[in-house]
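Researcher: I'm preparing a figure for a lab meeting and need a structural model of a single chain. I don't have an experimental structure, so a prediction will have to do for now. The sequence is pasted below. Please return the structure as tokens so I can convert it later.
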Amino acid sequence: MHERYCSIDWRKCRLEHRVKDAMRRFIWYRLSANSPLTADGNFKLLMSNQDVLERHPFPWSAEACLAILGGFQAKRDIFLVFRVFYRWASLKKIAGFTREISSFLDDIAAPEAESYKSVKLRNSVFTAAEESLFVAALENTADDSSYFAFRDNVMVHLNWELGLRTEQVAGVDGNHLVEVVGPNGVSYFHLKIIRLKQRSYKSSYRNRVVSEVLAKKLKNLIALRVKNFGAEVEELPLFVDSGNRRVSGELIRNAIVWMCQQAKLSPGTSTFLRHNMAQKLADQGTPGDLISDMLDHTTKIAARYYVQATPAIAKIKARALGKNATYKELMSLMTGALVHRHDATDSATIVRGVVATRYIGNIGVCGLDVDTACSKNPIYSCYTCRKFQPFINGEHDNVIAALRSEVQLMLDQSLDLGENKVVLQLEKTIEHASDILERCKAHIEGSH
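Model: Understood. Here is the structure written out token by token.
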């Protein structure tokens, strides 16, 4: 029932027959040695880059291979797949592929991978509509009349609600569900989840609170397990295959793909569901250290990216880029009139200062008396001061760039936005400076 999603169609291949034949054999090798998902991904990468490969007649020389790699535009995934394909073909002694060129390709460093790119772009999170479809699929396929069908539903529900790794799901035993009855008679449930990475803790397990719906499913599945496999099942794996062995990661991944198909969504993975859970927690203001602990991470690096990708941060960045019309209207009243640099007859009134270790000395003039010292922090405070008259050709873009580098440094050092009020203040300053820059550009364009 749960077939791995795979759509390899060789009719899409336009490459000459020798390359096409070698690729057929390579994809078949990937299917047998790795997994259908890996083979499908390799096929799609190669097919999507046919234009690059077609530009260079086969067999490829070292220079042609170098040009092909350059045509991939520093995309790490296709770079690695092409190199593995060429290496495999040379080892199989397929005509046109040589060990010398394979060694040449191995010596070329692959492009650096951008850490947590999908998290930064919020690609690893369900939209509200997708989440609704996925939850509906979980509800509609929760048939507890059959152990194996119900097992798959519960495994996917665990992945979605708790953001577990496949090994953690497979490691759940029948006696890991704990029910605690409160003073008011209400039952609360938690599940013992094995720690795979956090080995520094005394306990190998972490208690994770589960919803009432999931707890009910787990209890029903335990009952089915007892009915099908015997009374001592509480000390045995909860999720088993038809041979009464603990389920494999492949079975769990297949169940997730199947559930996504029932929801009419693109095939998902356990990693995607982990990212989705973590990002939703970050969106609700959950502290980064708690997210890190729930994901069984040993560092807080990943949690930092989830927090930085929250809509709150996105909203601040949108304002910083001057995209909010409401703020634009108000900002025009925050400073004095725009002036030209040559209108500043007294050099002592020109504003100068340092922003994030960068000296900037050409942004505008201050309306205070020459012998009056500013009680605020010049440059940082200027863009919200009525005494400040911005230069039309001032270095406002340099101010914005310096402020943004300072914000990024602050974000890198703080997991939670709420812990760092300075970030909010800096972003507001960027917001005002961006508005000044737009006003200056509009003035220049209008004068032509």
